[in-house]
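Design job #97: recover the sequence.
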């Protein structure tokens, strides 16, 4: 597929102050997009990233929002419309991850992970859709997980939330087409500098390494420009799902 520039487009990445979200923001900015970062508590990191993006010539904005609450999502999308007047790309990246034995999993923990990992994607997609429909085009990319496809012991709550993200992606692709293309990326283990290498993962996967934020950002960049792909789950795991 011929390379297409994202110049003139606007991308919103939730949970973008750190880690995978930060990598995605940097990559889409490098492709020419202006960037909105939503963050919950990582204000310093979000503001530093905005300055870094602006130094490259891109427009950038950071908005504090807990995207598991409709009021905060409405505030976020009002800021997007007021500042940029359009939205071409939504990357639903915000998520939490923690272990809990099923027998000890509390109702509060269950609700919290469902709200952050799944409800937020529904709320943001619902707010993005009218803007994108008005433009006649748009891309929504939901970050799911290999855990949404494979059951992980000790992570029932997380796996269910990510399986829900995968089904939400497929439902939205049907509901919002043809103007809006909706896809999901399911990362395997992604690690960042300074973290202890996951040696078991590295040993088992065919590519013999864990993934990087840039690996996921590359997949996102592809889906922002693909014109004949919707409702798909792109697994980016170094081959972990094969073994």
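Job complete. Output follows.
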């Amino acid at each position: 597929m011929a390379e297409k520039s994202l110049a003139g487009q606007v991308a919103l990445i939730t949970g973008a102050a750190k880690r995978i979200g930060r990598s995605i923001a940097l990559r889409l900015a490098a492709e020419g997009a202006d960037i909105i970062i939503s963050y919950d508590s990582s204000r310093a990191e979000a503001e530093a990233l905005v300055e870094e993006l602006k130094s490259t010539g891109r427009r950038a904005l950071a908005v504090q929002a807990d995207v598991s609450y409709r009021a905060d999502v409405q505030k976020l999308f009002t800021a997007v419309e007021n500042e940029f007047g359009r939205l071409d790309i939504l990357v639903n990246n915000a998520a939490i991850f923690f272990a809990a034995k099923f027998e000890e999993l509390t109702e509060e923990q269950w609700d919290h992970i469902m709200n952050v990992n799944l409800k937020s994607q529904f709320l943001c997609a619902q707010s993005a859709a009218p803007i994108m429909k008005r433009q006649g085009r748009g891309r929504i990319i939901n970050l799911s997980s290999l855990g949404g496809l494979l059951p992980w012991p000790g992570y029932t709550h997380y796996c269910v939330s990510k399986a829900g993200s995968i089904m939400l992606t497929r439902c939205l692709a049907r509901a919002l087409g043809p103007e809006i293309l909706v896809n999901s990326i399911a990362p395997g283990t992604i690690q960042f500098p300074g973290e202890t290498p996951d040696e078991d993962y590295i040993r088992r996967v065919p590519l013999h390494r864990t993934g990087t934020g840039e690996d996921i950002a590359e997949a996102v960049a592809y889906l922002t420009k693909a014109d004949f792909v919707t409702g798909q789950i792109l697994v980016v795991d170094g081959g972990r799902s094969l073994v």
